[in-house]
Amino acid sequence: MSKETNLPILYSFRRCPYAIRARLALLQSGISVELREVVLRNRPQHMLDISPKGTVPVLLLPDGTVLEESLDIMLWALDDAFILGDWKRLVDENDGAFKHHLDRYKYNSRYENALTVEEHRNKVLEYLEEYDKRLIQASYLCGEKPTLADYALAPFVRQFANTDRMWFDQLSLPSLHRWLATILESQLFVQSMTKFNQWKIGDKPIVFG
Ligand SMILES: N[C@@H](CCC(=O)N[C@@H](CS)C(=O)NCC(=O)O)C(=O)O
Fold first, then answer.
1. Given this model, what pLDDT does residue 3 score?
2. Adjacent-strand bridge partners of 203
3. Which residues contact 197 (CB under 8 A, 6 or more apart)?
4. How far apart are CA 76 and CA 119, in angstroms?
5. What domains can you pick out in the chain, each with its CATH number?
6. Helix 148-163 vs helix 99-106: angle between axes, to the nearest 10 degrees?
7. For residue 145, what is the DSSP state?
8. Which segments of 20-63 are extended strands (E)?
9. Which one, of 92, 179, 185, lies nearest residue 136 by Cα?
10. C-beta 159 within 6 A of ligand 1
11. Cα of 18 from ligand 1 centre, angstroms
12. Would the CB of 16 count as within 6 Å of ligand 1?
């Protein structure tokens, strides 16, 4: 907990899809936190002290509990009404195979044993086609309202889309396009992407949410 604000402390990084999903869940639930914007190559010592694995997001609760997985932050923040459907399978696939192929599509040359850019892109496309089928049936992945699954997956679909926006836009997946646009244009998402300067010790606390 922050001594100055008495709020939970969130170590966050604006563009990180895992941090985005955590911020979406916190905003959705109306939970205010003290946000500390991290630069990954220069991580704050306090963050590494409470979470040596060094990934963002990290949430430090007032009772000293440290949540260092984005999904745990979402499950802690969201009401049961948002934790619906087959979210677990969707999140596991997203954080597993989808993310694997997304990284090798977006940053292909960083990986020694990667397939081609197109092969990894097509692997991701198989998931997007599945999402599109679901989104023909309902406005969101698990029904007519956004739930954990939407907040957890949309930041990764956004990253995929932005890698080659023209190619993504010509895909004939109308329901997926509609879903992504609705989420990205929502007040919640726009607020989640507010820009903050890198946090330094002694900075005036930034209350987020
Ligand atoms: N499983 C973690 C993954 C978080 C993660 O990998 N975040 C990236 C930024 S998008 C990171 O901190 N990378 C730094 C590193 O791996 O050293 C979660 O869900 O929170």
1. 67
2. none
3. 37
4. 37
5. 9-79+190-208 (3.40.30.10), 81-186 (1.20.1050.10)
6. 20
7. S
8. 33-37, 58-60
9. 179
10. no
11. 7
12. yes
Q: Cα torsion for 92, 98, 104, 110, to the nearest 10°? A: -30
Contact partners, residue 64, CB within 8 Å, separation at least 6: 1
How far CA 171 is from CA of 123, 128, 185, in Å, comes to: 14, 10, 20
The answer to whether the Cα torsion of 144, 187, 126, 22 is positive or negative is negative
pLDDT single digits (tens) 104-156: 999 999 999 999 999 999 999 999 999 999 999 999 999 999 999 999 999 99
pLDDT per residue of the chain (209 residues) written in tens, 0 to 9: 566 789 999 999 999 999 999 999 999 999 999 999 999 999 999 999 999 999 999 999 999 999 999 999 999 999 999 999 999 999 999 999 999 999 999 999 999 999 999 999 999 999 999 999 999 999 999 999 999 999 999 999 999 999 999 999 999 999 999 999 999 999 999 999 999 999 999 999 999 99
Q: What is the distance between the alpha carbons of residues 7 and 206, in angstroms, rounded to a whole number? A: 10
Helix orientation angle between 174-185 and 148-163, rounded to the nearest 10 degrees:
100
Please choose from 18, 50, 70 the residue to mutate so as to test ligand 1's pocket, defined by most ligand atoms within 8 A of CB: 18
Q: Is the beta carbon of 56 within 6 A of some atom in ligand 1? A: yes
